[in-house]
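User: Design a sequence. Structure:
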């Protein structure tokens, strides 16, 4: 639902005796682009405002649509439930994973432990050592970045488990609202809930939220994103706790947000890591055929931990459906290939693979310089020849067509 409050100029001429009530619109179809809806609302608000200013009617409700018209009802003013959008409720949960379950490079594990230490030493550093005098609201904001399925969500739960705290998870879609101005309020409510329950705040799929703000927003959606990013900056400055963002795509982060983040990079597992992941995802209770080799399974590269987990689940389901005795090597490899085929390519890998090496760049530059020099010499020779000789080709008559 959209609302419109009359501004001071609209109320001024008759404010002593009558003032225009707020206008509202609701029931817009979800499949119409937001840009078109914005233009429609602006025009309709203008027309409604002119009618109300001229005739000053009692409160009324108009109905419009493409289906059969509803039964005629007695006009009534909008209820408070229609006027006020509801604020989403956020709840915390116990962490689902521990550090022992993480299969990550030692460098990444060390970086995660650093994040834990930053929170654990807060009472000593900011309390006993009085660094709170220069930073009244100490908070830690971390960004997990890397391809999908590389363990970012597991790592967030493991950190919460290590800190003996609950975790509050959400996505950007949980914060967005069709009501203008409600997104920043939802974001503020999210941080307030995490503070009240002393929980680790985990924001997944945060690419859009962390990206650079629009200098000149052209659409209502762009203005809404700008407002949420501004609210995020204020929330990070006043929140005392740990905030973890997770992003899959490389983005140009907003400079103000970038300066507040600690980055932890997640990568696809190597052969040794893939072997450990296969081992942990094949429980002792799962009937596995004797032809299954962990080394052979780990030889399949460019797969994530999530790909391996889904391959085990699909292979086990297929085995159970066919009432077979055990999960075979062929079924596991086939399920893994199907999972790889359904996974979109990593944009980071695509970006880096198209970059030229320094030697290749020098080679391309030399070729361009050589072509420019050859073209320059050709033009100089052409300008030195007599006009009749130089233009002999251009003045040759075109051959006649043979019919």
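Assistant: Done.
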């Amino acid at each position: 639902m959209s609302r419109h409050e009359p501004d001071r100029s609209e109320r001024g001429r008759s404010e002593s005796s009558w003032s225009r009530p707020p206008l509202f619109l609701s029931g817009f179809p979800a499949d119409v682009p937001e840009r078109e809806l914005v233009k429609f609302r602006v025009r309709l608000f203008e027309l409604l405002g002119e009618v109300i200013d001229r005739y000053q009617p009692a409160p009324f409700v108009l109905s419009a649509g493409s289906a059969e018209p509803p039964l005629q009802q007695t006009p009534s003013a909008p209820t408070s439930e229609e006027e006020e959008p509801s604020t989403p409720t956020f709840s915390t949960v116990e962490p689902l994973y521990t550090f022992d379950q993480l299969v990550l490079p030692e460098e990444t594990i060390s970086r995660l432990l650093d994040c834990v230490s930053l929170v654990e030493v807060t009472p000593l550093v900011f309390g006993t050592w009085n660094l709170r005098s220069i930073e009244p609201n100490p908070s830690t904001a971390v960004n997990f970045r890397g391809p999908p399925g590389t363990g970012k969500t597991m790592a967030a739960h493991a950190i919460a488990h290590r800190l003996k705290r609950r975790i509050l998870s959400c996505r950007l879609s949980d914060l967005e609202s069709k009501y203008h101005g409600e997104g920043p309020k939802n974001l503020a409510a999210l941080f307030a809930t995490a503070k009240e329950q002393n929980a680790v705040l985990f924001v997944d799929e945060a690419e859009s939220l962390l990206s650079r703000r629009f200098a000149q927003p052209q659409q209502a959606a762009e203005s809404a994103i700008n407002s949420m990013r501004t609210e995020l900056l204020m929330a990070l400055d006043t929140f005392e706790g740990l905030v973890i963002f997770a992003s899959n795509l490389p983005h140009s982060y907003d400079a103000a947000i970038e300066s507040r983040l600690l980055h932890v990079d997640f990568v696809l597992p190597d052969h040794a890591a893939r072997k450990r992941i296969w081992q942990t995802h094949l429980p002792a209770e799962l009937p596995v055929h004797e032809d299954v080799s962990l080394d052979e399974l780990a030889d399949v590269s460019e797969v994530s931990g999530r790909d391996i987990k889904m391959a085990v689940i699909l292979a086990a389901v297929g085995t159970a459906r066919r009432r077979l005795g055990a999960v075979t090597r062929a079924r596991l490899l086939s399920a893994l290939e199907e999972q790889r085929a359904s996974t979109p390519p990593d944009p980071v890998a695509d970006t880096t693979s198209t970059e030229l090496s320094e030697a290749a760049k020098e080679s391309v530059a030399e070729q361009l310089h050589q072509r420019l020099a050859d073209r320059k010499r050709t033009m100089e020779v052409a300008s030195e020849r007599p006009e009749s000789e130089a233009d002999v080709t251009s003045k040759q008559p075109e051959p006649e067509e043979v019919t």
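The chain has a mean pLDDT of 79. The domain at 271-342 is CATH 1.10.8.60 (Helicase, Ruva Protein; domain 3).
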